[in-house]
Each structure stands twice: as C-alpha cells, then as structure tokens.
Design a protein that fits this description.
Radius of gyration: 15 Å
CATH architecture: Alpha Horseshoe
Order of helices and strands: HHHHHHH
Shape: globular
Length: 139
C-alpha cells in the first residue's frame, strides 16, 4: 500500500497520516481487534518508532500485543512479532531489564512455535545476545 511505500522512502509524516486514516477506516468497518486493524496499528507503531517517538510506539505495540494474544494466541507468529517490537521499543526507552526479559520469553516461544533456525527466532536471539553484551560492560 501507499503508506508502506512512503515508509520505505523515509517519508514518515506522510506515511503516518495515511496509516492513521487506514487504521481508523479499518476500526470502523472491521472492528478494533480485527487482524487487519491490528496490522495497521502495528504499522503505525513502527512509523512512530522510526521517528524516535518511542513512548507513543510503546503504547501502540503493547495494545497490539495484548489484542493479538487474546485474539490469535500467545504463540501466534503475529503475537510474537508484536512482542519482539515491544522489546525493541523498551530497549530504546532504556528499560533494559524489561526488554531482555520480554525478548527472552519471545525467543523461547519462537523456538517452540517456529523452530530454532527460523529467521525470526535467529533475529531475536541476536538482539538478546547483543543486549546482554552491552549490559556486561556496565559497572
């Protein structure tokens, strides 16, 4: 869609406006907890995250993760994606312990659901290892 194209081009303000419109339309037509609506909210959170608006992104990532957990199940790939996004957001907000805890849970669930060699599991494991290394240098 156009919002994704604008996002990929780094046109965050335009992408945000379009994604907001899409999200509101999906909420009206499909409902707030419909998977397509949740995808729009997650996309909006990603746009805000890329703008460094981590507090706003955190709220949306948390909302999407909880809704996906309820609607799709805790170990659904979309829920796991939301969990990883929230962990990355917490890392940006300097909530390191929370970020490590959540990404660790996400890795365990990803390993069970997707397999240890799945690209998402590997990416999450790499983030965890990187974050742990950063923390080991703190006195």
């Amino acid at each position: 869609n156009l919002a994704a194209t604008l996002w990929n081009q780094g046109q965050w303000d335009a992408a945000e406006e379009l994604e907001l419109q899409l999200m509101e339309a999906r909420k009206r037509k499909l409902g707030a907890d419909h998977p397509a609506t949740l995808s729009s909210i997650a996309s909006l959170a990603g746009i805000l995250w890329n703008q460094g608006r981590w507090d706003e992104a955190e709220d949306l990532h948390l909302q999407v993760m909880k809704a996906r957990e309820k609607k799709l199940g805790a170990d659904h790939p979309d829920t796991l994606s939301s969990m990883a996004c929230l962990a990355h957001t917490w890392k940006c907000l300097d909530s390191d312990a929370e970020a490590l805890g959540l990404i660790s849970i996400c890795i365990s669930m990803s390993t069970r659901k997707l397999g240890a060699g799945h690209p998402d599991t590997l990416e999450r494991t790499q983030a965890y290892n990187s974050w742990k290394m950063e923390g080991s240098h703190i006195s």
